[in-house]
Amino acid sequence: MITYACIVLVLYIVPLCGMSDQIKEEIADHTINGQKEFAIVVPTYNNSDVCIRNVDSLLNQDYDNYHVYIVDDVSDDDTYQKLQGYIEQHPLCEKVTLIKNKHHIGAAANYYHVISSLPGRVIVLNADGDDFLAHEQVLNKLNEVYDNQNIWMTYGQFREYPSGRVGFCKPTASKTILDHNYRQSEWLATHLRTYYAWLFHHIEVEDLQYEGAFVPACYDRAIMYPLLEMCAGHFICVDEVLLIYNCINPRSVIRTKASVQQKMHRYIRSLPPYKPLDGIILDVNS
């Protein structure tokens, strides 16, 4: 089941004729046999124990029109070697670009460099190297969602591994959308996060950085707050579980950089909000 950011918004969604020609061109229908083009971007670091399961969940999709970009961020273990050997022997190896960084640069920088190089029409999935897509129909579900050209991004539900607990995803309140107050409201933009590359291209690189370097934590909020603000209601919450979130990784930021994460959270929330593209905010009372 798909839940809209605010159910009432379905009745008042801004028509395509209200958008600029540039935006209409960016989200024009680019499909192959009814399938939109997806790019799954995966930063990975020291994930030797789960990297094969991770890539299997990506390549087991019952879908054709997608490509996977895996960036090994100078792992200290054999993550890269495992991935390289496995992908080279996989029948779908042509669907994967495996990148090995020369220097450790962090998740935010990895996402930025890959997504900045993608065509605007591509729909991006963020998937960390220790997580897994929930089932083989994830891309088909998202393809159905993006059939609505008024949808520019999604966030959604996840299930924790190994507990099996379902996450806290829920629709964004209409007041948050109308007040344009995402940074001071409850954080809801959880896994699985997806968006058009053209939308990401509107983010200023400085807003993904702190003191001249890419943020060392909270990259998800650094990316999602600007996207939500620019979308101004052109997004939905997908309440079906599409991602399995690995809660036992001892190298996760919440375990290794908790104080840094809190500091980055405060900093990102303090930044000024982005303006809605075209100056449009969906008004449920209009």
Describe the structure.
With 286 residues, this protein is α/β, with parallel strands linked by helices. It has a single domain, classed as Spore Coat Polysaccharide Biosynthesis Protein SpsA, Chain A, CATH 3.90.550. The chain is 29% helix and 21% strand. The chain has helices at 21-26, 51-59, 79-89, 107-116, 138-145, 174-179, 197-200, 219-231, 253-256, 258-270; strands at residues 2-4, 31-32, 35-36, 38-44, 66-72, 96-100, 123-126, 132-133, 153-161, 193-196, 209-210, 213-214, 235-246. The strands form three sheets. Strands 1, 4, 5, 6, 7, 8, 9, 10 and 13 form a nine-stranded mixed beta sheet that branches. The chain has a two-stranded antiparallel sheet with strand order 2-3. It has a two-stranded antiparallel ribbon with strand order 11-12. The chain is globular. It starts with a strand and ends in a 16-residue tail after the last helix. Residues 1-18 have low confidence and may be disordered.
Question: In summary, what is this structure?
Answer:
It is built from ten helices and 13 strands. It has helices spanning about 20-25, 50-60, 80-90, 105-115, 140-145, 175-180, 195-200, 220-230, 255, 260-270; strands spanning about 1-5, 30, 35, 40-45, 65-70, 95-100, 125, 130-135, 155-160, 195, 210, 215, 235-245. Mean pLDDT is about 90; it is low at about 1-20.
